[in-house]
Amino acid sequence: MSSVNASYVTPSDIIASYLKYGNDMISLDVKNARESSNKKVKYVDVSFKKVNGRAYPLKLKFLNQKINNSVKDITNRSYEQIKLSFCEPGEFTQAMLNISEAFKAKVNEMAGTTITSDRKNKNCVWLPSIDPRTPVQTEALGKNDEVNVFENPIIWVKLNAKRYSDSELASLPQVEGTYASTGSNLIVKQFNVSFANVSSGKPVKTKLDYVTCADAFTRNSIVSGVIQIQAISSQSGGFGLSVNFDKTLFYITADKASFDDSFGDDDFAEMAKFAKPAEAPVEVPSKDSFEDSFEEDHNIDFSAISSLKLE
């Protein structure tokens, strides 16, 4: 994507731009879509226009969002893909609703004129599907197949695993059993993001995997971070917004929420309001640890939050 500034945006940025530009606050770079090696999937970059008219990649920074679900024990999961859900009313939810509405409108507007799922149509960019999908869930089927509309929409965000080669996968530990819906083995994978626990009032790097994440991300835990949003088109998944956690996810387990250069002292002070006295679940960082190295690399002073007295 050209003329795009490498930075993040905030929920308030999204809401303000939606009021000013409506659906035109986002752009889909379909002409430069990247195709998978098997030709079955296309990846489309999504850019966002701030009220000042400048374009940014759609990376959304959020603070102190309460998890609506909990990550189940690995032996009780139906699927390998882990997602966290959010449904509390507020700027984050409103921003995601605005993004989703703008995306659906843009896709429907481009269908047949700019994009097509018909390979014979040479006047448009071919995509495996042009059926718009978003991470916002507004309803679900009940036990008797009745449609239940949610009072508050649910936002789903993926917590993705690292990519492994076949030989790397074979060397990873496994837990006895299989995923209920797929029958695949319970492999203990690492994630493609890092984690920091903020229960003590300062970020402390933690190591979470497909097993230990169930202890960290319980219902009503608080998380902060950045989500990356791009569009992916496939015949099986439609043309949907893929929403994933990016870089570092900060957390406070249960009622206790918990690093990259998007976050400063003021942000951690805001996170700390949700924390309660608790020891960090890992060893005290050394000079070569997460906090020290980050402080040096990004010229960030954590002293302002190191003495926070948490209620």
Describe the overall structure.
By secondary structure, the chain is an alpha+beta fold. Helix content is 20%, strand content 31%. It has seven helices and 18 strands. Strands 2, 3, 6, 10, 15, 16, 17 and 18 form an eight-stranded mixed beta sheet that branches. A hairpin with a 5-residue loop joins strand 2 (34-35) and strand 3. The protein is globular.
Q: Number of DSSP helices?
A: 7
Number of strands: 18
The mean pLDDT is 84
Given the C-alpha coordinates, what overall shape results?
Answer: globular
What is the H/E order?
A: HEEEEEEEHEEEEEHEEEEHEEHHH
Question: Beta fraction of the residues?
Answer: 25-35%
Secondary-structure-derived class: alpha+beta
Q: Give the biggest sheet.
A: 8 strands, mixed
The radius of gyration computed from the alpha-carbon positions, rounded to a whole number of angstroms, is 21 Å
Uncertain residue segments = 1-5, 278-311
| Share in helix | 10-25%
Distance between the termini: 45 Å
